[in-house]
Amino acid sequence: MIPYVLRRLAQAVPTLFLVVTLSFFLVRLAPGGPFDLERPLPAAAMENLRRVYGLDQPLLVQYGRYLAALARGDLGPSFSVRDLSVAELFARGLPVSMTLGGLALVVSLVLGTLLGGLAALRRGSWLDHAVTTLGTFALTVPGFVVAPLLQIAFGLSLRWLPVGGWDDGAPRHLVLPVVTLALPQVAVVARLARAGLVEVFDRPHWRTLRALGLPPRVLALHALRGAALPVVSYLGPAAAGLLTGSVVVETVFGLPGVGRYFVDGAINRDYTLVLGTVVLIAVFVLVLNLLSDLACALIDPRLRDFG
Which residues of 270-290 are buried (b: 16+ CB within 10 A; e: fewer)? Predict the structure, then answer.
């Protein structure tokens, strides 16, 4: 297992380097700058700001300095939020994003596996078709459409839940954002679980186990283990979807998470804040993909030879 982990880490380092490099130059190619205001600053003040933040240096020099700082774990200062570094902003926003993403991941795994299992057990029935149809609907409707609909229905019309805000993570404020984030992932997990279980049910050994009269609990354990591989392998992409989806959800619901900082940074041309968010998301995706692959290798040891 250790050589497998080392191979995966060796693959992750150049991937992260490529993400950082492309993001750095794409951000700098965007029109405008971090100090462009409606009322332009005097030329001397603008030049002083550029000198203080190192923006007066050639682009390749700035790139080299950013890589050196990143290697030390320094994400740099924020250009738009005065007196705070990018790391300090993430220390505030990361708990919010991780809370939303973690809850949405748990909901999608539990609910998606349950729906997929029911659809597989009732293959070809109205329940199977209903799960498939609802899954297609959840996948095709984007989060920026689902979120306002939930706000109107449960916040403004029924007045059951607040339409936005954080309130220190109060459960009532978490329901709508978590549901918005989890819906597409529930659909994917349900499809994967159904496909995996159907494949297990069609295997000869499953019919042999049923013919032996094993208890339902033992049968369920065998079925879930056989169908777990596609669901577990999707954990990495699911986490990536939750992280990218949080950008929209946190903006719509007014939550102070990392996704909201990314949007504000992009609007204000805050180079370091945007780059820091990209690096953070990339690291999370690579780590979660590695953990997902490790779990798959534990379930099926044959996969270690292909890492």
Answer: bbbbbbbbbbbbbebbbebbb
